[in-house]
Amino acid sequence: MSLLDIRGLTTAFQTERGEITAVEDISFSLEEGEILGIVGESGSGKSVTALTVMGLLPRPPARIVSGSVRFAGQELTGLSERQMQKVRGPGIAMIFQEPMTSLNPVFRIGEQIMETIRAHERLSTRALRDRAVQMLEKVGIPSPARRLDDYPHQLSGGQRQRVMIAMALACNPRLLIADEPTTALDVTIQAQILDLLMDLRDEFGMAIMIITHNMGVVAETADRVMVMYAGRVVEEAPVGTVFDAPLHPYTRGLLDCVPSLSAAKPRLVAIPGNLPEPARRPSGCRFRPRCGLAVPACAAAIPPLDPHGPGHRVACIRATAEVAA
Amino acid sequence: MSETGALPLEATLAAPEAEPRRRHPAWATLRRLFRHRLFVTGLVLFGIIAFMAAAAPWITDANPNRLSMRNKFQPPGGDWVFGTDNFGRSLWSRVVWGAQLSVMIGLSVVALNAVFGTLIGALAGYFRRLDNILMRVNDALMAFPAILLAIGVTAMLGPSTFNVILALGIVYIPRTARIVRASVIVLREMEYVQAAVAAGAGHWRILRHHILPNAMAPMIVQLSFLFAYAVLSEATLSFLGLGAVPPTPTWGNIMAEGRDFMRDAPWIIAIPGVTLMITVLGLNMLGDGLRDVLDPRLRIQQ
Predict the structure, then answer these.
(1) Would you state the pLDDT for residue B116?
(2) Could you tell me the pTM of the whole model?
């Protein structure tokens, strides 16, 4: 049984202009200890997927229209806020994009880590403190016992992201969702944080879901990649396959946007056009208006996510045709 | 992305911070406060009044209501520091005891606001469902001019010290609640609140640990101004005969009585008037100073 199993998930938002579907008919699963990268442009539904899993979307305006989210055998979609609080932390934890604002400025970081543990476990202050020191050590903060009494403004961005990770890991989660964990950081620090995440995965055996729009981050960390476009999954494959043999035109477009140091690619190729507004999505395949391979048949129906080899699923009717050609 | 070693430390933070003890950041704030001229002046002015209020039994020799008809309308100076009124009562005594009552009422109103204003504001700001109900009641109360509402409430309840506190509480709590609500709405969307929710913290824990401590700065500023308003409103109410019942020495009462003798004995109305002015001025300067130091937007500009 998978650790996280999502089936046919559709999340919509109530707006003044009617209901808008942010995420549509998404299915995927995540095994224990696996790192899944979710890639896509802003607005493709990556974050909404993560927030739906965490039950963090404000309802209303958000609404889970259909589908199921099973975590460790437990269905999460129908849980009350109180029941969900028990899952967050020890079950699923999350780290956010902005390390600068993700820590409460008025409390020492030690207090914040202890506070997180205290929400789920009854421990003496001494035990809490020991655990906090231990966590800071785990995430590579030097002289953790002293750092415990620092305020967030005394730390650098990379240090704060480490503290955030320490807080997320404090309750030993089985799944860690990292929403753009390195976007706000310097490139050198990015690499450190990604290494840290992988080390922690190896040590604790937790699964990680990394949400990013950076193909480099995916290549560096993920075991498996899921590409999203306009609220739908367009391609899913093991990381090697995505980079070596991408099938969906959108995935290929994304890879063409990545600058390369080898001289193979003379110019960066941008994908023409923009992500369609949720209210004005085209009929059939949503990538059709921007796709160089589109044929009239693409407008007929939303292409299903079909298997194309081991662990490889693609939602494009032109995928095979193109490869054959 | 390149290979990095086993979690290299960030050199900038590892090296130069070897100072012995880290001070609480409140220290820095206090230091800046005492360097703020406006704040210090306000503190001194209000300090004089607060001292008078606290030391009233020791710095006045007489019962503020003791009559001495032989000595009525004595001008300030000589035996009578502030002179005497139409019944020969020592004005010094009466003004000092009046200060005590003013400060007491001011503090009570501030305390009421700190508790209920925060409670209502936090609930309205944090729980969207409560927002509309609480804030419409708030708006209804705020639609009345402050002093008119206070007059209405005291007129209904009858004049007494307790009723004045109650009336001023009812008048000002909606204003405080509104300010707290505004900060809570902003703070509710902060990423560290999201992070706390994501870590499984409950509403109570989030409000107490993440939202309210961060909403304290505007609250403190508001409460210092509120103190001034409360003292001023109390004086107005008792001047109109809706406050503590005469002969209780309140500044408003003294001024109301002195009004009839303004031409012959102007000190009776002038002295409590000036005292009131010093109090309000002091508190306002204090509040301005606090705002300059505590307001995060101003801090960025510095």
Answers:
(1) 95
(2) 0.74
Asked if A102 and B191 come within 8 Å (Cβ–Cβ), the reply is: yes
Verify whether the Cβ–Cβ distance A195 to B4 is below 8 Å. Answer: yes
Q: What is the DSSP letter of B209?
A: I
Q: A106–B202: do the CB atoms touch at under 8 Å?
A: no
Start-to-end Cα distance in chain B = 39
Burial B48-68 (b: 16+ CB within 10 A, else e): ebbebbeebeeebeeebeeee
Substitution target from A84, A86, A106 for chain B, most B beta carbons within 10 A: A106
Q: For chain A, give every domain's residue range.
A: 2-91+173-323, 99-172
Question: A191 and B14 in contact by Cβ < 8 A?
Answer: no
Q: Check if A168 contacts B (Cβ < 8 Å).
A: yes
**B213–A187: do the CB atoms touch at under 8 Å?**
no
| Homologous superfamily of domain range A2-91+173-323 | P-loop containing nucleotide triphosphate hydrolases (3.40.50.300)
The SS3 assignment for A105 reads: coil
pLDDT in tens, A177-236: 988 887 777 778 788 888 888 888 888 888 999 998 888 888 888 889 999 888 888 888
CA distance A138 to chain B (A): 10
Map out the domains of chain B with their CATH numbers.
Answer: 39-60+80-295 (1.10.3720.10)
> Can you tell me the distance from the alpha carbon of B249 to that of B253, in angstroms, rounded to the nearest whole number?
6
A218 contacts chain B (CB < 8 A):
no
pLDDT tens digits along B108-131: 999 999 999 999 999 999 998 889
- Alpha carbon distances (Å) from B10 to A100, A158, B14: 16, 8, 6
| Closest partner CB to A158 (pick from B10, B14, B201) | B10
Smallest CA-to-CA distance from A27 within A236, A217, A184, A193 is with A236
CA B132 vs CA B135, B136, B137: distances in Å: 5, 6, 9
Instruction: Kindly write down the DSSP assignment for every residue of A63-81, as one continuous string.
Output: EEEEEEEEETTEE-TT--H
Per-residue pLDDT band for B12 (boundaries 50, 70, 90) equals very low
Using alpha carbons, select from B274, B231, B230, B237 the residue that is nearest to residue B253.
Answer: B237
What's the CA gap between A103 and B190, in Å, rounded?
9
Residue of chain B whose Cα is closest to the Cα of A56: B198
Q: Is B145 helix (H, G, I), strand (E, B) or coil?
A: coil
Interface test with A, best of B7, B29, B214 (most A CBs within 10 A): B7
CB-CB: which of A58, A101, A159 is closest to B13? A159
Report ipTM (2 d.p.): 0.72
Using DSSP, how many helices (H) and how many strands (E) does chain B show? Answer: 15, 0
- List CB contacts (< 8 A) between B210 and chain A: 104
